[in-house]
UniProtKB/TrEMBL annotation:
It is a peripheral membrane protein. Gene3D superfamilies: P-loop containing nucleotide triphosphate hydrolases. Pfam families: ABC_tran. Belongs to the ABC transporter superfamily. This is Amino acid ABC transporter ATP-binding protein. Residues 2-236 form the ABC transporter domain. Its main location: membrane. GO terms for molecular function: ATP binding. Signal peptide: none annotated. It comes from the Bacteria.
Length: 242
């Protein structure tokens, strides 16, 4: 579903990604972890063309992301993206937030878009809040709306960029629960996160990055049981000690 081959990226003279390669199969959940500044978010944003890259290839469902001829808006409409900050339109109601891209990008009629949006709101446990504006919801609720909005586009894969890092601790589980359900349903997912409990529960594979490189790419039992690199061992000992 997602193929990343020998991808390198620079900001001016600073190399932020170095020769990164990995694959994500259909229905697979891959967690990307590592210290801050290791290139995790940059890598995931390259997958749907939000960040450009200078070397290598990325294909999503056979479509080359870096090809100048590729229709990136069309590709992005098929790859759901959930950000650290919810990126909801504050002046629109929750229902309008969910319907907007469906009508503008997919060409759905408004009634069908609203119906689909309400079904997905129900699925993330927020149908009662459909008439509210984002500012009237908690952070966890807004992030669940953002996930519902991404799902409303019928994505072939979902990308999550630290979806719980801006939330209060009490709200984290309500977002992770929705992501766990998605994983159980077979959604292809790439998720940048520090939530190691989530990784242990649902990931098929864990990618560990440091200084712009993929240091480990292993199934989760192998990664948590016996990481090969000293860097990953040190990272896990700090994170899992608490």
């Amino acid at each position: 579903m997602i193929s990343i081959k020998n991808v390198s990226k620079w900001y001016g003279d600073f190399q932020v990604l170095t020769d990164c390669s990995t694959e994500v199969q259909k229905g697979e959940v891959v967690v990307v972890c590592g210290p801050s500044g290791s290139g995790k978010s940059t890598l995931i944003k390259c997958v749907n063309g939000l960040e450009s890259f200078q070397q290598g290839t990325i294909t999503v469902d056979g479509i080359s992301v870096g090809d100048p001829k590729t229709n990136l808006p069309k590709l992005r409409s098929r790859v759901g993206m959930v950000f650290q900050h919810f990126e909801l339109f504050p002046h629109l109601t929750i229902t309008e937030n969910l319907a907007l891209a469906q009508t503008k990008v997919l060409g759905r009629n408004k009634d069908a878009a609203i119906e689909k949006g309400l079904k997905l709101l129900d699925r993330v446990g927020l149908k009662a809040h459909a008439h509210k504006h984002p500012g009237q919801l908690s952070g966890g609720q807004q992030q669940r709306v953002a996930i519902a909005r991404a799902l409303a586009m019928d994505p072939i894969a979902m990308l999550f960029d630290e979806p719980t890092s801006a939330l209060d601790p009490e709200m984290i589980n309500e977002v992770l629960d929705v992501m766990v359900e998605l994983a159980k349903e077979g959604m292809t997912m790439m998720c940048v996160t520090h939530e190691m409990g989530f990784a242990r529960k649902v990931a098929n594979r864990v990618i560990f990055m440091d200084r712009g490189q993929i240091i480990e790419d292993a199934n989760k039992d192998e990664f948590f049981g016996s990481p090969r690199s000293e860097r990953a061992q040190a990272f896990l000992s700090k994170i899992l000690a608490h």
